[in-house]
Amino acid sequence: MKKNICLLACMLLFAAGCGKQQNEEDFLYQDVTEDMEDLIVVGVSQVGSESDWRLANTRSYQETFTEENGYYLIFEDGQQKQENQVKALRNFILQEVDYIILDPVVETGWDAVLQEAKDAGIPVILSDRSVQVEDDSLYACWIGSDFTIEGVNAGLWLKDYLEKEGRTEETINIVTLQGTYDSTAQIGRTQGFECILNTQKNWKMLEKMSGEFTQAKAKEVMEYFLKMYPEIHVVICENDNMAFGAMDAMKEAGRSYGKNGDIILISFDATQAALEAVEKGEINVDFECNPNLGPIVDKAIKKLEQGQEIEKIQYVEETYFD
Ligand code: AHR
Q: Which atom in ligand 1 lies closest to the alpha carbon of residue 271?
């Protein structure tokens, strides 16, 4: 391989070789094409940089798809906008990349562009989040977390915790800071938790609202929750950065939370900073979401390169910390 070497080499030359003499350009062209000849070109369309988890996930791709590992990486940050991601995918198709890795900001609205990738013969690997499409042959596989199980586990943990605290008869008022609406992480965590909520007569979901996976937005939403509902017993934060935002709001409102506080704080991701907060007792429990997806995607690509079958859905193993 690779089919796109000339095209990519020309693009690199255009960027690097402007103003050079003809013979200099020829040498440069030869160097670039020789260097890239054996590389697998991957286009990664990332959601954005909304959270610490996301930064770790981006690092994982960048550390995996290196020239030493046999890759040439084209990375595009979608800045949380589906239209940017669609544009990035169309550019990858134009550049004739070998594989597209898509981490879709939302689940719906991908059929057309994925069909274009399929028509161009470019396999698409969904990483972290998934899509809802009519035809699942539009992507090669999805590698990510079982977000629904994460939500179920959060509900089961709360049930167990309240039993141990002797609070099974008490009304338990809950609010949820949700992730970006229509994202796989939001849908799974919300639905998973609700599976358990629906079995507990005395649990009351006061309100759910999106904090868009960011600390700043979550702080705003938590301030609103605290004003609206004087008695909140549990805050579910669908990621760690939103837990930090909720903590900021609760601190400012003089409310106590965590292990020794009045409000139980449940979070998802288990990033380094959040695990320190768990250790300090500020967050009661944190459900892991593994951002190190680069090596798993790499394995899938290597299999596809060898013409091997790959599993359509590949969940990563995860745990929790309390
Ligand atoms: O899709 C994974 C989620 O997206 C992570 O929980 C969150 O931190 C990120 O922004």
A: 8
The mean predicted confidence, pLDDT, of the chain is 93
d(CA 321, CA 130): 25
Q: Give the residue from 235, 237, 241 showing the smallest Cα distance to 206.
A: 235
Is 205 among the domain residues?
yes
Q: Which residues line ligand 1 (CB under 6 A)?
A: 50-51, 53-54, 128-129, 185, 213, 239, 268-269, 289
We report the CATH number of the domain holding residue 271 as: 3.40.50.2300
Q: In the predicted model, what is the mean pLDDT of residues 17-22?
A: 52
The pTM score is: 0.91
Question: Does 256 score more than 60 pLDDT?
Answer: yes
30 contact partners, CB below 8 Å, separation of at least 6: none
Q: Distance (Å, rounded) from C-alpha 115 to C-alpha 132?
A: 13
Are 223 and 132 part of one and the same domain?
no
- pLDDT category of residue 143 using cuts at 50, 70 and 90: very high
Q: Decide the pairing of beta strands 313-315 and 264-269.
A: unpaired
Gap between the Cα atoms of 11 and 93, Å rounded: 14
Distance 174 CA to ligand 1 centre (A): 21
Reduced 3-state DSSP string for 240-268:
HHHHHHHHHHHHHCCCCECCCCCEEEEEE
Averaged over 167-188, what is the pLDDT? 98
Q: Is the pLDDT of residue 177 over 80?
A: yes
Is the per-residue pLDDT at 25 higher than 60? no
Within a domain: 102: yes
Q: Distance between CA 87 and CA 189 in Å, rounded? A: 29
